[in-house]
Design brief:
five-stranded mixed beta sheet, about 20% strand, disordered N terminus
Length: about 240
């Protein structure tokens, strides 16, 4: 997804980001019940404060004398603004804050594409492959999307660091008893902290919500991150 022009090119962006980048787009939580309502409001507040902080940073950068008077300076400002708004759009997709959820494959692809756009360098060309097999239970979809966001973000940040070309593969499979998520990249290979750092800690916490497991391992062509989630007891049929 190379982006070399100084101005934004919405034709090259994902459907998610193109429909959500307008700065005046209102935040409106989906209807919730019970404790979910308070949780949704808390997430919305965090999203709002994060967006405000990023926009404040953008405002401070814009004060640099002569920055927008050059082609390179204008490109930097446009890119910063695009990423601030994309960050907010990604929050909407992860937590269902604005748009009614679509199918799982479309949601997963949108989250992964937006994560790559947000994290990648403008000159990088990163190919994304998303495969979904089976029906992921509704109770696991939020966890899967958040895990995919973290895994793909790590692949771009670490595996694809300073690489011009790369390939990231996301595979989500569900059978009668388990749902598995795997993200592989052909980057430099994992070489972080022994315990995986904060990112792997977050993945472990997400997996633990459903008594699942997560792994991070170096493979021949890069890195593979996985999460396996049991479906738990299934309701007995009526009658």
């Amino acid at each position: 997804m190379p982006r070399t022009a100084p101005q934004q090119d919405l034709s090259r962006m994902t459907y998610l980001s193109a429909r959500s980048l307008h700065p005046a787009a209102p935040w409106s939580p989906l209807p919730r019940h019970g404790g979910q309502e308070a949780e949704t409001i808390s997430i919305g507040l965090l999203r709002h404060h994060t967006k405000n902080a990023l926009q404040r940073i953008l405002a401070e950068v814009s004060k640099v004398r002569g920055l927008e008077e050059t082609r390179d300076g204008h490109r930097v400002m446009a890119e910063l603004e695009r990423r601030v708004m994309l960050s907010a759009a990604l929050s909407n997709a992860l937590f269902g804050l604005t748009h009614a959820p679509g199918g799982m494959e479309d949601r997963l692809r949108s989250v992964c594409e937006a994560t790559v756009e947000l994290m990648a360098d403008p000159d990088q060309i990163l190919r994304l492959e998303v495969v979904v097999e089976g029906e992921c239970p509704a109770a696991l979809r939020g966890t899967v999307l958040r895990a995919a966001h973290e895994m793909v973000g790590n692949a771009v940040k670490h595996g694809m660091h300073a690489r011009l070309l790369g390939h990231i593969r996301i595979r989500l499979t569900s059978d009668a008893a388990w749902t598995g998520l795997a993200v592989e990249d052909d980057g430099w290979g994992y070489a972080g902290a022994r315990d995986g750092g904060e990112g792997l800690g977050l993945l472990r916490a997400l997996a633990a919500l459903h008594e699942g497991t997560t792994t991070l391992q170096r493979i021949q062509d890069g890195t593979r991150a996985t999460m396996d989630l049991p479906h738990g007891p299934q309701p007995l049929p009526m009658g």
